[in-house]
Each structure stands twice: as C-alpha cells, then as structure tokens.
Amino acid sequence: MGYTRTQLWTLLGLQAVISFSFQSIFPFVNQMLLEIGVVNDPKDVGYWSGLVESTYAVSQLIAVFPATRIADTYGRKPVIVWSAAIVGISMISFGTSTSYAQMIVSRILGGVEGGSHTCIRVMVSEMSSKSEESHILTLLGVAFRMGKVLGQPIGGALAHPERRFPELFVSAFWRKYPYALPCFVGATYALVCAFVGQLVLKETLQPKRKVDAPTPSPDADETTLLLPNESSGSSTPVKNTDSSPSISSVLTWPLASLLGSVVGMVLINYFISATYPLFAFTPIEFGGLGLSEAQIGLHMATRSLLIIITMLPFSKFSDRFGRLNVYRFSVFTWIPSIFLFPLLNRIARAGGEGGILWYAVLSVLFILWSVTGWAWISVFLISSNLSPSPEAVATIQGMVSVALFTPQAVAPALGTSAFALSIKYSDILGGNLFWVGMFAFGALVFLHSLTLSDISYDWRGEETNEARVEDPAI
C-alpha cells in the first residue's frame, strides 16, 4: 500500500501516547495515595499502588480481543484514534481524583486502549513491505521508550506546581489537585495525537476476501482472524477455515516451554519495574531510597533512555551469538541486578547516598536492567521461527501475547504488596525478604531458559520444509 513520512511519524507519536501519558503518574502515585488519604502509613502504600498499576493491565488485557474485532469490522484507524482520545480523558480524570475509586476507574478507562498497539503493528504490516516492516517495528519500540523518557520526568517535575512554581500556579485549583498538571500535560499530548491521527492516517483495512472452503465440521470456529495475505504481504481479515490451525495442533513442547519462560521473564520484569518507584519512595530507614517525586521520575527516565541505547546493538549480538543465547544472557542479568537494590539501601543507610559509590552502583544497576530488555525482542524472533506454516504464525503470536499480557495484570500488585510485607516484617532477613525471593525466582527463570531449544521452521519457504534445531535442548 505504501505510506508517507507524515503517516509514519504520526504512528510513532501515537505509539508513544500510552507510555508518555500513563508512565508520568508513577513518580508521584505513591505520594498521591498518602495525600488523598487512602493510606496513612508509607509502609502500607505498596498494597494500594500495586492495585492501581495492575488494574490498568487487567483492563488492557480484556480490551485486546474486542478492539481487534472492531478493527476487523470498522478499520484500524478508528481503534487507534479513539484509543488515544480515551487515554486523554482518563488522564484528566486521574489528575483530578480525590478518591481511590476514581483513581481505579480512571485506570480502567485508560486500559481500553489495549488493542491499539496490536492495531498499530497491523497497520504497519499492511502499509509497508516485508523489508521495511522490521525497521518500522524497531522505530515503534524506540518511540514507546521515548514516551517514557519524556513522560516520567514530567510527572515528577510538574507534581505540586503550587510549590515548585508559586508565581505561576496561585489558584486554589492547583492546591486541591496537586497532581493535575502532569496529567493534563499527558492528556493534551494524547488528544493532540488523536486529532492529528484522524487527519493524517489512511485506513489500511482491505475488503474481506471470500475463501472457498470444504464444509466445516460441527465445531468449526467461525471467528475472524488476521492472517497474512501471501500476495501482498499485508494482513487482511479472512474467515477462519481449516487452514487456520488450532492451539492444540501448534502447541509443541518447545513452544510450551518458551511460553513458560516468557511468563517467568515478564513476572520478574514487572515485579521489579512496578516495585522500583515504591522502593525509591520508601524512606531509607524502612529499606528504600527516600527519593522525591522528581528524583524518581529522573531515575525512571534515565533507565528508559539506557534501554533505547542498548536496543541499538541488539541485532548484531543476535546475529553473532544467536537469539536464544542473547535471550538467556538477558534473563541472567536479572540475577546481579536484584542484588544491587538492597546494596543501594545499605550504602544510603551508611550515609553514602549521593556519593560516588552510590552513583556507581546505581549506574551499574541501570545498565544491567536495560540489558534485560533484550529478552522481549528475542521472544518474538524465537517464537516466529517456531511456526510450522504461515497459517500458524498468527495463532502462535496470539499465544505469546497472552503469555506476555497475563503476568502484567497480576505482577504489579503482587510485587508491591510483597515489598510492603517485606519492610513491614523487617525482622525477617533484615527486611530483605522480597529481594531474596526475587533473586531465587530470577535464578529459576534463568535455569529454565537453559532448557529451551531454538527450533527453526522455514515457514517462509526460503530453505526447506523441515525444522532445523539450532540449539538442542539440554
């Protein structure tokens, strides 16, 4: 179909909407819960902030398949544009929340954009050639991280504007809603992107093509799927026929083992990612770092920037050492990373916060943490090659998506609650029970990754029709 640079830049901007808009709340959400009276003790805030974060993930997971069905019926563009607009509305609601219920409802509302990321990727496939697609998908990943780089420090820096900029924000409104400004900035960005998307984006959904198929069996699935169009390289909605394999027919042992590894990888990733703002916010004497909202936002933005930098050499390392070995190495880096979190607290307790040693350990932590991002890219490469046929690609990727999304719905609440329990019962392992558990779980996930096999099927027809085992199971 082809695309213009304007359309590509608009898609990149829309891809960054969710990370820019919603990541901006993380530097201040814990303090917000204290100030609106949800909790009174900083040691208990983790239980409640985890639920705020998990609620969005649950809503996103639920919205994926309905949004995809709507996109197949009415087009990709309406889903993408309206999702961005709804995110903007939800941000306004979150910034003016005065109760825990309103915070939760705002997050649920924002989570309905869950299907837009899939629609953006489908639109990219339909408007680009095969050689262009991988490059554009890489740009989408960079755009998502850039949204974090910009959104997180804004969330920290613009919280309580009546204190930071008393000459400009003198109205009683800002005293009543001290977290409205960063949310309004995120909402404005989302709404502007939705408006530009409505003007610029061109619909890529093609008319449905009919498929002549044998008489279906009584239990035939009549749902509509996105399958590759072999003649154009694009995705068009087609009626599911016998050529679409069932989950049971493609769920081989190597795939099942990979899916299990993905669940473990995502769990530990979101355990730590959701807990870090709480860890950074918690006073030093309770096991945290005692940082301000602005400092937390800067830390999170720095880490996102490092992830962008470490993404650049990924393809070279993957070509040289193999995607499975890169995946294993990426998972392994969680083990030393986890050790550094309590070490930072120990240094701070000794009065070394902000010193050379403290920043050196923090820098090493952020670098190792960034390398763990390679696992996400590796998973898509490994799972793609596990497809025995072009018809099975969508089925397998759908299973991978479930393995990715489901842990995101439970990990934030579990992680922050476990950390809160750890510091509440500080007599157990010196308050480091959470980190000991994460260390053991990280080691388990890594050891399991050693059992994976990188079985490559030539479903594109470029070599042979037989599977090739590039790394046999141990």
UniProtKB/TrEMBL annotation:
Disordered: annotated segments: 209-245
UniProt GO molecular function: transmembrane transporter activity
Keywords assigned: Membrane, Transmembrane, Transmembrane helix, Transport
This protein's GO CC annotations: membrane
Membrane topology listed for this record: Multi-pass membrane protein
Keyword Iron recorded: no
Cross-referenced Gene3D superfamilies: MFS general substrate transporter like domains
Cell compartments where the protein resides: Membrane
Biased composition (Polar residues): 229-245
Pfam families membership: MFS_1
Membrane-crossing segments per the record: 47-67, 79-98, 179-201, 255-276, 326-344, 356-382, 394-421, 433-452
Domain of life from the UniProt record: Eukaryota
Protein name listed in UniProt: Major facilitator superfamily (MFS) profile domain-containing protein
Domain Major facilitator superfamily (MFS) profile: start-end pairs: 1-460
